[in-house]
Amino acid sequence: MDLSLKELAKLRAVTEGTSKGKNPSIEGSLDSLVQTLCQMKNKMETEPVTKDTKKEIDEKQKEIYNAIVRLGKALDKTFTQPLPSYDPLFTADDAKASLDAIVAIHFLRTGQFSAAEMFIQESGVTIDAEIRCKFEELHRILTALRMRDIDPALEWCSKNRKFLQSKSSPLEFYLHRSRYIRLLLTCKPPDYQPAISYASTILCKFYTEHTAELGRLMSCLAYLPPKSKLEHSPYADLASPTVHTDLESLFATEYCASLGMSRQVPLKVVGDIGAGGALARIEKARTVMKEKKSEWSQSDELPIEITLAPESRYHSIFACPVSKEQSTEQNPPMMMVCGHVITKDSLQKLSKVNGRVKCPYCPTESVQTSALRIYF
């Protein structure tokens, strides 16, 4: 998938004129492209076409054509099998409206406001004006963070402090930590008073929740100056740019959580999992089962295991070491007195008449009723 995205980026660079080529750019939108073509047509009608002009057009056309061919080859390598065909999933009016709303919110959440407005206009879906304003505020603050301005984010944290405290969120502390480190690295040695004053007046408020981290922030002074000394110290992570760049994703997560939305963008998760190989594996299993004339009757499980990236694993899955079966609501994991965990069915099978159970992994014996259910 990375190769396809790389070739798509190259194609976009060529058509937008940001490649190394010296040819003029082609506007991204179709309206602008049509306008450009009309202007060229009028120019060709009034002015003679020179060899240089024709050569310039031919070179641009060849450049774009080659980029499209490379993208096609990359897609063929990534998707070796044709896309599967399924019956329409969104046939009811309510389902179509829900899908349109999800797409519109996706555009708003990812900051594609012009695309969102066009989609809302053409689909006729209704999105609450307050939601639009919220996402506009989100991206205004994210843009400020990208420009190293944390004041809008701190203002939002101040207004939503109770919510952040209920989640034990470190967002506000990390924002102040970012400013403290910037002050520290921009001070003229040996005068670190501006950074120390900021720590004593602002950071001290977070001492109870972040005692250890505050100790590290003050101790790193021993490795300054220069900055290179700090980068090779036990506090090297404080000199990393990620201390500042990670604030964007953390703020977006907390902001969306305050709106009751998921940590990740739903449509992006679906696309990443499907294009990452899950759809191809499911389709292959479907084909094999069709050839063997067998059907999968479980509605809450897949017939095969799908390997997911760590960020896409939302539920811990426990496999019983005795029966090798995955736990379910009806067959939950149970922890015995010794600390070993097996499923409820295995526990009952190992139980003797008197209700005592010998652990299959250690000599400990316990009563079946003393086992506790584990929630992952």
Protein described:
The chain has 376 residues and is mainly alpha-helical. 56% of the residues lie in helices and 4% in strands. The chain contains 15 helices and 5 strands. The strands form 2 sheets. A 3-stranded antiparallel sheet has the order 2-1-5. A hairpin with a 5-residue loop joins strand 1 and strand 2 (341-343). Helix 4 runs antiparallel to helix 5, helix 9 runs antiparallel to helix 10 (193-201) and helix 9 packs antiparallel against helix 13. The longest helix is centred in the N-terminal third of the chain and has 28 residues, at 51-78.
Instruction: Describe the oligomeric state of these chains in a short phrase.
Output: single chain
- Report the major sheet: 3 strands, antiparallel
- Secondary structure class reads mainly alpha
Which word captures the global form?
extended
Count of individual beta strands: 5
Computed CA radius of gyration, to the nearest angstrom = 29 Å
Low-pLDDT segments: 18-29
Approximately what portion of the residues adopt beta-strand conformation? under 5%
Overall residue-averaged pLDDT value:
84
- Head-to-tail CA distance between termini: 32 Å
Tally of individual helices? 15
H/E element order: HHHHHHHHHHHHHHEEHEEE
Strand order of the largest sheet: 2-1-5
Helix content: 55-70%
